[in-house]
Amino acid sequence: MGVMHETKIILNIVAGIAGIIAALLWLASTKVTVNEPDEVGSWDRGAIISRDGIDLIETAAAQTLWSRRAAIAASIAAFAQSGAIFLP
Hints:
This protein is mainly alpha-helical. Helices cover about 70% and strands about 5% of the residues. It contains two helices and two strands; from the N terminus they run αββα. The protein has helices spanning about 5-30, 55-85, and strands at about 50, 55. The chain has a two-stranded antiparallel sheet. The longest helix is centred in the C-terminal third of the chain and has 31 residues, at about 55-85. It is rod-shaped.
């Protein structure tokens, strides 16, 4: 096996692992919830929009963080896969 072949194998492994990580992070983002504070005075970021005790604004912010991490992992997978495809 040549160096290029081994590099392609490594890039494909990186792409697969990064893809799995991205999927897990996006699944985690769907499970994130932030409970509203116990005391209104203990929260200083403005109005609270909640439903069933879940702070919707803070939950959306937490989900965005997890989605951002997933997007980074997905981009790593895409770059690694592209590299493996375009190597001779």
